[in-house]
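We modelled the chain as a single entity of 464 amino acids. Its sequence is:
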Amino acid sequence: MKKTLFDKVWDSHVVRKIENGPDVLFIDRHMVHEVTSPVAFLGLKNRALPVLYPARTFATADHNTPTVNQHLPVADPLSRNQLKALERNANEYGISYWGLGHQKNGIVHVVGPEYGITQPGATIVCGDSHTSTHGAFGAIAFGIGTSEVEMVLATQCIMQPKPKKMRIVINGSLKKGVTPKDVALFIISKLTTSGATGYFVEYAGEVFEQLSMEGRMTVCNLSIEMGARGGMIAPDQKTFEYIKDREFTPQGAAWDKAMAYWNTLYTDQGAAFDKEYLFEGADIDPMITFGTNPGMGISITKAIPKASEIEGAQSTYEKSLTYMGYKEGEKMEGKPIDYVFIGSCTNGRIEDFRAFASIVKGHKRAENVTAWLVPGSHKVLNAIKEEGLLEILEEAEFKLREPGCSACLAMNDDKIPAGKYAVSTSNRNFEGRQGPGARTLLASPLVAAAAAITGKITDPRTLI
């Protein structure tokens, strides 16, 4: 029978099928952080259960880590207690733990690929919705809840109904100034934030083949924002070159054995999907969001649509614009901004900082702009320094922060003030996402850089 990539990976991990119920799925890699794990570990303790496979479990501190002064005690009591709990639980159960100050520390979905924990054909879970990032390697990766974290710790399995299958094909090539972030925001604007609910998405076509691995991670990361359970891209030579010789990837004969399997990971010709979409790369422009969900995005050169042009409740649409302080028909280009944020599990990788630096080089940060530049890991932080990007950033009057998620979800003191506009390379623009009353505009690193030096929403193509 013809199988999709998703079918091949899912079916090979089914331990047991429950009639008229979910599948029992074996999990190859379990990523753990400090927010969703404390209650799960408490559940193990109350039942006197061990972690079944500590070697398949990896813990890193990221959500509660402040992006400045990580050498000092964490001031916020909630963050401090959760970080201490993760360290204590990881040590007690023999799990690899990369805490603050550790050279491998960073955002969970950045460090997983960096160290070869993420591999083709694997099943990967984490108590975080953006686990879909790892699907860029041809893995099935999805976020889970606290009770499911406990289940995986105890059994290395999870009970899951098999999602339906969707394929999104984008052919052709991207225009100058259009990035993987724009591709993802374009797709979400077309499908809406619920358009892929109940599906696992495979991205295929020439545009995705042309993307780097980091670009593919950005696209897969945002799969969850259109309601998908996850997203994946078939592994190819780029994938294999990226992961080869990393710390946790197979070596020697084991590598050859793994490659024999990985080379079978593609969708068979004629395999059926439940739903398919086809787009052209040339139709995608640099994108910007104007509302309070990631689906409310448009080309940076376009005007905010009228409520009558949008499917869904008009009252909700109007409420969103009121929160953002915008009106129907207004142009986004030229609107003033206050903050710029580059980082997160979506755009905190070295390629993102290269893109940002390429725009700000030779310019100065706009006086009205506060900029938060947050690498996704210490490995990214070191690369920024080694490649000379730090000099470019500092000459343009930008300061580099330390790795973590804090500025993405308004933890510690990393909060955008109420009413302020932030051009953000993150993944969510909900009300209050980056601070109570803060207004977030999702965009690519190029758009963020253009805004940072002009003080307003600017098409980056005018600066390239």
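As a brief sanity check on the tokenised model: The first strand starts at residue 14 and ends at 17. The chain has a mean pLDDT of 96.
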